[in-house]
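>> received
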Amino acid sequence: MHQPVSLSRPLLQRLATLAALLAFAWLAGGCTTTLVLMYVHEKITEGMPPACHKLDTVERALSPRCGNFVPGSLDPQHVAHSRLPLCPVTEATRDPRLWPVLPELLAKGATLDGCAVPPLVALAQAAPCPDFTQASAEVLVALRRVAEDRQSVHHDAMRVLSCPHARTAGLHTALDRWLTAGWLPPRTLPFGPLSALHPEHLQSPFARALEAQGHTARAGLGGYQGHLNTGFEEALRTGHWAALDWWLTRVPELANKVPPRDGRQLPWVPLARVVGPRFIDDPSQQEAAVRFLLARGARPAQKLPHDPGLTVAAYARRLQSPLAALLEGDEAVKVAGRHPEAEAMLAPAVK
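>> returned
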């Protein structure tokens, strides 16, 4: 049985008023009818997005509700004088559905100049690793052109360009352009490039080249300009053991305490985060992550910065975590100090 539709009092009042106006227009006839109908249409559509035929060519091309993009339809004047809240290149880059518009936008004069949010930053924050392999060759050329613009140099853009789909599509080589052009000087960037890389890219020649130029893992800790997680946190959340090993080899103290990204925040304890119910992306990897950290020196007796009277082990008991027993007594001592590569059981699902 259909449920009765409930209308709010303001809406009922608006409908009653519009009905009265229509009745008056019908009785009056002529021009009055036309004017009243125009007014009624305006009120009914108030707050709705404008009709597609009222948009300029750029607005229409970047509005998925207006249908598929028609190549050759962009007016260069509309490209040069966009009415969009974000610059057209950012709008076209951040949504994979709009990527087909990007080549023509660039060909007709659109640039990254004046983009308050760099295009690849907007894309990374919306989708940290979109499937670039589904893009056409023409779109990939356009994305590379955007990536090789100096305004793309940013923590989040670096993450998306080094993610697996970007590497498969060959877009990761844009990072080589950043390096050879001198756009990644050590100690002066508002982020640490090694921390910005996707965990799977830490073993790459590019990462080794960054270290050879003086970039360090420690430089990627603490505050930075970006929205996406630090490289260490991303590796921990995703259970990327090889990347975690890379980080803990260079900064061993990360096993017990990680600097905050904001000076107003407190450090955080990886073991405490991992025993929580919602930190690890894949819950089946939670025990493996605890064992991995214990094997690399994490201490169940570590006190929590936000509650110095509480240890990690006590925190796990408070949460009634099924891993609490692993953090206490003989089992914790047995696991602690082992190297994960020597005990395959610690990471049964190494990625």
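>> Residues 1-5, 340-351 have pLDDT under 50 and may be disordered.
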